[in-house]
Specification:
By secondary structure, this protein is an all-alpha fold. It has 2 domains: about 60 residues, Orthogonal Bundle (Arc Repressor Mutant, subunit A), CATH 1.10.10.60; about 140 residues. The protein is built from 10 helices and 2 strands.
Length: about 210
């Protein structure tokens, strides 16, 4: 009798999202959050499907598998630059190359502090050399370079200043500070926990940029 009763009890199906647009969005958000939380070790078709609440075959149908999902995330990282680092001046007059670099550096630092996936990708860049990491890192770098080209317009760095090298060092420093804040809350004894700590960093970044570019 018990066996008959159990047979009559239908299993509760997982929550399914039937609209294609909603399904694609659910898969994408599940993949992005899973990658941010688990890294590539926990990033698999079955894990993404479980989190998205959909059949794994839909991932192949809509994205072509994990590589397609990574391409979509890479494209989103390009949009991340445009969304988090707006191309308008925000009321600030960008009269010089120094104005531009100050704005870009501070906006970039603020954006990184609020995006755990991008922080992880940057950390992976210096610790893992895999096709997946390179794909995501290159997408972010291309977008940032395009943003700078569009914003720069006719602005040029002062003569005698190697702007590409200076900017590379500046952004590498910003990235390392943000990653250190996530990992330990400090760097070389410099606290990176409170907003007061970050205001000091911002002030120092401004002084560095102005000291180099005027």
């Amino acid at each position: 009798m018990l066996a008959v009763q159990e047979a009559l009890v239908e299993p509760v199906p997982e929550r399914r999202v039937k609209n294609r647009v909603q399904t694609e969005a659910a898969i994408f958000q599940a993949a992005r959050s899973l990658l941010a939380e688990e890294g590539f070790q926990g990033f698999g078709i079955n894990a993404v499907a479980r989190r998205a609440g959909c059949d794994k075959q839909l991932i192949y149908r809509y994205y072509g598998g994990l590589d397609g999902l990574l391409d979509a995330i890479g494209a989103d990282l390009g949009d991340w630059v445009k969304e988090r680092i707006p191309e308008d001046s925000g009321g600030m007059f960008l009269l010089t190359y120094g104005d531009l670099m100050e704005r870009l550096a501070l906006l970039y630092m603020e954006a990184l502090r609020h995006d755990p996936l991008v922080c992880k990708i940057i950390a992976w860049e210096v610790s893992k050399d895999t096709p997946q990491v390179r794909r995501l890192a290159e997408a972010r770098s291309r977008s940032l370079a395009k943003w700078l080209d569009r914003m720069r317009g006719s602005l040029t760095a002062p003569k005698g200043v190697d702007a590409p090298t200076v900017n590379g060092i500046l952004f590498a420093a910003i990235q390392h500070l943000v990653i250190s804040a996530v990992a330990t809350g400090e760097f070389a004894g410099l606290p990176l926990r409170s907003e007061k700590d970050w205001l000091k960093i911002e002030t120092s970044v401004r002084r560095l940029v102005r000291g180099i570019y005027g």
